[in-house]
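Supplementary Methods, section 5.1.

A reviewer requested that the exact input to the structure prediction be made available. We therefore reproduce it here, unchanged from the version used in the analyses.
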Amino acid sequence: MLQHAIISTRKTRVKRLEVGTGTFGYQLAFYQREGFRVDAIDKDYFLINYEEPIYEDGIQLKDMLRLVLNFDEDRG
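The structure derived from this sequence is encoded token-by-token as follows.
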């Protein structure tokens, strides 16, 4: 599904695709393998926006990373 979003977006005039994820874990590596880079950190995002705490591998998620894929920097 991510590949479809990247390919579809690349065909348009959109210059960047943005996603948000936790600051660690397999999701971060998943997006980075596709060329996404860290653009910003939303501090306390998961604490403010979710009533129940979210844990991954026994660690509570607190901050959200905003990752971007810039098509104007894209080589392919």
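The CA atoms of residues 24 and 61 lie 9 Å apart. These observations are discussed further in the main text.
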